[in-house]
Write a structure and sequence with these properties.
The complex is a heterodimer of chains A (about 100) and B (about 260). Chain A has 4 helices and 2 strands. With about 100 residues, chain A is mostly helical. Chain A has a domain at about 65-105. Chain A is elongated and about 55 Å long. By secondary structure, chain B is mostly helical. Chain B starts with 6 loop residues before the first helix and ends in a 45-residue tail after the last helix. The model of chain B is unreliable at about 235-260 (pLDDT under 50). Classes of the chains: A mainly alpha (about 100), B mainly alpha (about 260). The interface between A and B is large, with 82 and 115 residues. Chain B: It is a multi-pass membrane protein.
Chain lengths: ~100, ~260
Amino acid sequence: MSLWGWILLACAISIATKFVGFLVPAKLLDNPRMLRVAGSLTIGLLAALTAVNTFASGQVLVVDARVVALAAAALALWLRAPFLVVVAVGALAAGLARLLGAA
Amino acid sequence: MVLFQSPAVRVALSVAIATGLYGLSFGALSVAAGLDLLQTMALSLLLFSGGSQFAFIGVIAGGGSGISAMSAAALLGIRNGVYGMQVNVLLRPSRWRKLAAAHVTIDESVATATGQTDPAEQRRGFWAAGIGVFVLWNLFTLGGALAGNAMGDPARWGLDGAAVAAFLGLLWPRIRAREPAAIAVVCAVVTLLAVPFVPPGVPILIAAVMAAVLGLAGLGPATEGLEPDVEPYPSGSDDDAPGPGSGPRPAKHSRGRGAGA
């Protein structure tokens, strides 16, 4: 399937997921195991995406300018910067690190 | 106009502006990942869930396949189903409104609604934040995508660093207690261990399985990770308004990010 196909399928699944929430009985909300899995999935996926985008280059693990971006973003978040500032800080840090010779 | 005297609507508008603005980063990163303008807009208009959209392009940017990207986006969107149940209980929308409500059921609208105690205010907050974010998120996605197209090579501008920062920014508000932080660390390590052995994109799905197992095993309090990643209300003002999980909140949020009431 082409990229377009996967994009539209992802969109359809997103719409369906949201809508299903409105159709199922509210009793499901009392199921702590279901909530726990949904919660840990969210955390696990975001952590995985952070790790891969920082250290993976194809199937190789590398340490390059993106690590500097990660550290700078963490500092910005710790200082409670808003999301867009955090993103800009990450870009700036990676750009500067490359300028200074990081891979 | 009476709408603008509603505290929920005022909060919703500032949430919409703050969130809409980071549509800029999504648009720019999406075209940097190799999606074209229309594909980028399709994600913002139809998928419309920031975390899942970033997940999709994050997998593609890393060389992952379309099916891995779709799976990561779908799994990350599961929390929206839980939000849907909460909104349905909270607002009891009529049948035809459910579809529209479902589409704007995202972190921001849920957080704005659940931060109010009066049902009418909850309703106004939900719709104002949902529609406001939808409109601005799409406008700024378009702006970001156009800008990204003009910028060329992503590495030269540090856009890969921006992606790293974006994911950390989405994760950050969810890992303030010890158990969720432990889940995050375990999943990150598992992902990196898998990188050399499986095709790009798949490590993220392995981490998802790991996370689900940890959740099933009962690690962490029931509501962890299910709190919307925005904090529309300043700390201290929401003591009687539990988060969407309605469960015990870990540390009281002290971050003043987002709107002031």
